[in-house]
Amino acid sequence: MSRAASRQVHLVRRPEGVPQPDDFALVEAPLPELAEGELLVENLWMSVDPYMRPRMTAGFELGEALSGGAIGRVVSSRHAVFREGDLVRSGLGFRDRFVSDGRGLQTLKPDPDLPLSVYLHALGGTGFTAYGGLLEIGKLKDGEQVFVSTAAGAVGSVAAQIAKLKGCYVVGSTGSDDKCDWLVNQAGIDVAINYKTHPIRQAVASATPRGIDVYFDNVGGEHLDAALRRMNMLGRIAVCGMISGYNGGGAPVSELANIIYGRVTLRGFVAADFMGAHERFLAEMTGWLKSGRIKYQETVVDGLDQAPGALIGLFSGANSGKMLVRLAK
Hints:
The protein contains nine helices and 16 strands. By secondary structure, it is an alpha/beta fold. The relative contact order is 0.15.
């Protein structure tokens, strides 16, 4: 590859259902010479996340590089702020290098006692989403009854563990016995449900004898229906994702009347809703990680050419914890 080129993953076809390898193409694109005020970044790590699936239907442009969270190193700079060797966070994943004028980049000064990769999950967007969604949107109180769907995923695992740190009774759902074992014996939650082997409605009812005060929803569909049947009076549902319907064919929700009679608050959210809590999140999460009170799993694949497969794998549960692509050392 030329030093003046970037390898990029482009969306070349709108997926129908679960994305397929032919929906993507690995493309080499030319890079311009650096102008005054610009810098060249080599990406080291990038993230793949379920939220990208709806954007493949409406959002990402065909024939252009996808985007997603990334951590890179400045390899050359004519910028007044960013220096060669600086680590930066960006939304310009799915490419191995890029030229920027600095907009949208954040200098990253990682804690030397933590691996760089955690800044793309527990100390990144997914961790902040879990933190704010549970505490700011879900209004979690100490000692409450909590249910988290996809509790072994990057967002769910953090939400479930924060709830345990707050003295709550926590039930989580996931898609394998191995993930259930990790949730109970490593993450420390009270009950883990394998929804692929146990009907979710009955399993949630059995696991929540005192009902549910806060449901952190990553799934929608049957999981949301199961939670609605168990919500306590004045319960709160923080809707983070609807992965069961991202590829079409999601199950209908039939228990919505429980929102009325239970005076339940159901609210969707994005991280921008609670940016005022970001500094507090960084301080608390750094402490929890360094003390071992928050645990995590990473599924790492190597090479930009593996990024489409990593993204597709999210929808079959191929990841334990955060799915990451390592691009360079």
